[in-house]
Amino acid sequence: MAERKCFDSADQTPLEVRAAIGESRKAYPNDSCIPCGAVVHMGFFFDGFGRHRDCDEKTTSRYSNICRLWEAHRDNEDRRRERMANQFWYPFYYSGLGTELNKEATDGLIVSAMLKLGNEGVKAAGATAASVGKNVTGLNRLPFNPERAITDAVKKGFAEFSFRPVVQSFHDLVNSVKSAPSNIGRVLRLQRDNRWLRRGRAATRAMLYDAKKNVLSIGWGAAKSVFLNVVIDSVPWFRDNRAIARVLGTGVDDRLTAAMNQFEKAIEDVKLKMPKIQRIQVSIFGADRGCVLARALANELTRKYKHPSDTKLAFVDPKDPNHTAVPIEIKFLGLLDAVSSLMEENKVLGMVPVLGMLKQNYGDRDLSVPASVQRCVHFAAAHELRFYQRLDSLENTRGLQYLYPGTSEDITGGAPPGTLGARAELQRVVLRDMLNEAVSHGVVVDTMEDMAKWKPEVFQKFTLATPISDGNATYKIWELIGAYRQIVPYVARLNFVEHMQVFLRWIAVRYQSPAFRATVTSHFDGLAARHRELLKERRDAEAAYLALRSQRPPVDAVTLGKAYARWQNATMPEMLAGRDAGVEKARPFIGVWERIKEESEELMRRESRQSAQQKSAEYMRKVAQDGSLPWDAAPELSATMIEAMMMTPEQEALLQAWKMGVSGKHPLPPKVMALFDLLVHDTMLTSWHDHVLSSNLYFQTRAIDTFGRSDYVGEEEKRKRDEKHGERVKQMSDAMAPGSRLPARF
To answer: Per the record, where are the segments of Basic and acidic residues compositional bias (predicted)?
Structure first.
């Protein structure tokens, strides 16, 4: 490890992390023993939705935390390998869903024959889908035609605000198909293990299970699953389209296949240089919907390489006559704000053609954390309230979960500079904590000291030493985070209410500040500002043209023509901008501050009735005991209905925090106020459509899913069966092995 000279304390590796690094190295005393064989380290990095290492600007916040962690992982071009000849380092990066798969991952997918689709690419894909659908499900028809299938009734039925982004995504899909160039060339890859049939049969099994509850949906459901999971996911044009990936959930299979292929290719690469391998160490990182891929890879590695059970993994080279088992260790699984759904599960959508194709979630994947993972941590956003960013909690599987202040982009990184109304330095807090967690558990990512020495450019993407200035005040990020954690302890649980209470105390103060409220603009304000800008350009162009036209002596025709063209080119954009601003101004619209006022007042009205309602419910249950009610009375039902109208304990706690902030009693420390003022993103304030589409604003906590579930009892029983089976196989193998031959007699 590099020296710690002249290091700002904010960038020094904590002592407990340095101690953990030392303990981790002690556990593998033979790692430096070259005759003992190679030590292979592989890191898999799955980026968040819409993020791409090769497209995002590396010097801004747009460069995600997954990209930064990937850069911190050592690779085989590192100069340090010169003195560590038996160490092999492979960092593998995968661009986020909704982007074109990065080149090195794509190259890993080319494993078999290829079928090129020409001008009729979409038609050919549809024909192939019907063929595969017939083979797998017995269906001949795949009615995929968005324009025809969405009837007026369906459109009306899904005109509610909460579904508009979904419908708009389908409009984007239809428009992208219409605008596809006629000579487009696309590649359809057929994997050697016939992934089409495998996914299709899995979909059919799932549909047969659902048939017990919904018989009418079975035929369409099976065909839908085959079409989405098999065909669309195999055509790069569909698979990596952002609108399609968000709505249809495409791109997962090819990224997972690429990771498995690169895992095997890395082992082959090592064997070319050093035939003997001591062990293979794997670390996996994911952000946002990339966490689906991270967990899927952990489960796929466990399924394929369990030896004999899921707690012990090993790679056995089929070409090795000795069948040597090389241990595989999944040392670390790091998740950043895992999201596995588009919206809350809605069973009605499954019955509607085309809209039933919506990939509402990735619950069909195995999202549990397998027993083979030695350490799993999940860092999540405490103040994310967008309905389409539901947290996929690990509470029913393995892993420690910690909440951080901010929204999803404050955890994963990737927010465009300035778009969410705050600075982007907060993402580095999570980044550094994930770096320390990983390096503490044996992952070959560099410490800050090593980065400063070997990767100074990467070091700049991790540093927390740069102060933040706000007027005359200057802060260090760790000071602000430390002040926040004095109020909300940093603990391994999803304590959303505590975090939202602090947020409400802050927003209640800012709600009363005219200066702060003036900084939050409506959608109309943006359109009006744009119109004013274009109007000025049109008037300037018109004035310049008229001035040239009246000039004496007259100007030449070319100069006059250019001035006239400028005037005409400025006219139409100004007219359209004026139209848009006028429409938005006339639209019935409620601002975020008005919504906060209405919701807080409504909750206070409900609070005033809380005590009386509680007494009414208790009274109904009391009279049910004395037998004085008529025989057909339903006191328990009445009591339950009364309690349903009451505020939940969570709402009561949040309202009390709001009232505390409004009253000015017990104000938050200045550094906590500065944290929210300067660093915490708030999409409800800065994104007009997010607050319009939300059923309520701040008097709620983040919605969660729990797709990852571990059956500990079932796993233990299966583990025992696998170990017994492995022991029997070993005994049979030993019995069949030829015995040692006696020395010949002369």
So the answer is: 715-731
